[in-house]
Design brief:
Blueprint (H helix, E strand, L loop, with lengths): L2 H19 L11 H10 L2 H18 L4 H9 L1 H16 L3 H16 L5 H12 L3 H13 L23 H19 L3 E4 L11 E2 L4 E2 L2 E4 L1 H9 L9
Antiparallel strand pairs: 1-4, 2-3
Helix pairs in contact: 1-4, 3-5, 3-6, 5-6, 5-7, 6-7, 8-9
Length: 237
């Protein structure tokens, strides 16, 4: 793509944001030029629908802002980049719920007065690394954190821990569930709580995991991400 085409693409992105901010999303897909060609030729029809859904939901959220904040959002390169990242994620989303979560994280980043929007964009990057099941697992940990209400795990297909009597299918289910938890741990969204350990001692050994026994719980970063996508833990409401 030439520099001229890149300039046209940048202008079209700003035009789209301006149209969204003015409630003019009925004109989607976009305003012609390079960006329109990308959508019509590269993005299949079903994915175009997801992008339209993303724009309509974002328009609803942006309509709540004062005009000066909207003007700042559509003129700031970092916020435009956040908008584009959200659009890319929305195209790949498989549910309306996921699109709504993407819209929340984009809106929160675009509307805040944070001077360092670059750091806020890391949350969008985290969301992009999670599938729908991992978000549901993270949310279950978040809803159970500091709450004595209903059990949030009832809606999660949580397999029984594998043992010597487990079938191959049951072992597979347990391994795949644990893979999701390990990804949440790797990203710092969950953490292991080893409880109170006296000085000079170690937590009890867990023969199953090969490590120390610990309770899994949501981290502060995990709670922050849930807040950003509209799923705050009870303690953060």
């Amino acid at each position: 793509m030439s520099d001229k085409d890149n300039d046209a693409l940048d202008r079209n992105t700003r035009d789209v944001l301006a149209a969204v901010a003015k409630g003019a999303v009925g004109a989607v897909p976009f305003v012609g030029g390079i960006l329109s060609e990308i959508i019509s030729e590269i993005i299949p029809g079903q994915r175009q629908d997801r992008l339209v859904k993303y724009l309509r939901l974002l328009e609803q959220r942006l309509s709540q802002l004062e005009q000066d904040k909207i003007d700042r959002a559509i003129s700031d390169p970092e916020r435009i980049d956040l908008f584009e990242r959200g659009a890319h994620q929305a195209v790949r989303a498989t549910t309306d719920k996921r699109i709504a979560q993407i819209v929340e994280i984009v809106f929160n980043g675009m509307s805040r007065d944070d001077a360092d929007i670059v750091r806020r964009k890391r949350l969008a990057g985290l969301l992009d690394q999670l599938d729908n099941d991992e978000i549901a697992i993270l949310n279950a940990y978040g809803q159970s954190y500091g709450s004595a209400g209903s059990d949030p795990w009832t809606e999660i297909p949580r397999p029984a821990p594998a043992n010597m009597q487990s079938t191959t299918s049951e072992i597979d289910d347990d391994a795949l569930f644990n893979l999701g938890q390990e990804n949440l741990l790797r990203l710092g969204l969950l953490r292991r709580n080893f409880g109170t350990v006296k000085k000079g001692e170690y937590p009890p050994f867990d023969a199953k995991s090969g490590g120390f026994k610990a309770r899994m719980e949501i981290s502060y970063l995990g709670r922050l991400l849930l807040r950003e996508i509209g799923l705050p833990s009870p303690i953060d409401v």
